[in-house]
Target: Glucosamine 6-phosphate N-acetyltransferase
Amino acid sequence: MEIVVRQLEAGDYDKGFLGLLSQLTTVGDIDRAKFEERLKEVSSPDYYIAVAEDAASGKLLGTAALVIERKFIHGCGKVGHIEDVVVDAAARGQRLGQRLVEELVSVSRSRGCYKVILDCAEHNVAFYEKCGLTRKEVQMVQYLDR
Amino acid sequence: MEIVVRQLEAGDYDKGFLGLLSQLTTVGDIDRAKFEERLKEVSSPDYYIAVAEDAASGKLLGTAALVIERKFIHGCGKVGHIEDVVVDAAARGQRLGQRLVEELVSVSRSRGCYKVILDCAEHNVAFYEKCGLTRKEVQMVQYLDR
Model:
């Protein structure tokens, strides 16, 4: 199977991008206009949303997002945050997740980040270790009732 | 002591902002032009860098940064990332850290985030629990040799 890893684009609304994300968590109702608005907002040097597409079918089989944070520490350094990594249930075991993460690490490096970080469940630590990351700290969360 | 919590501004270069950050980690040489350039880059709806200023002396005693991430999941939701929280060694024990974190949680809520997250060392978990956060996942890191 030939897989192309590339940046998210508008046509991916019809290639199953949101259905893929729904395998990760709640996506909700996002119509084409809302999708395109958010895509425009993240079309910036501080984002890179990668997708893995099956070249034969044109269907998306995986995605992972990178957000670049601009800091003052480390000489006004930048940090890449990897978020929302998901591979289609039917396409697991083909190292697509690893290819997506490695792509985002590569983009982080080329955009001048001094490190890449992410948060994951305990049972995914071994997967991210295979991608070249190591265990560091504790993630804390507060959910907001707006 | 009267403390004002407000957003970072250009004049904070002279009020000890970088010296404060150097109590957290390496800051390096950042001249006024570089500081102002980064400040301009983070003068956006997706950042809020809070500082705590001693009203009497005009000296900064603490800072904490918020980066807002725009996602597709959760109905094109937004997540606040809290980063680089530091309180001057001489001003600890006055709940300044808690005030700064609470300010960033409040800004996250007002800007429509559905959650706020951060990464911290194990020995700071109890502090962030006092701020209203709870333990969630594992943070992973990869340092990049550019």
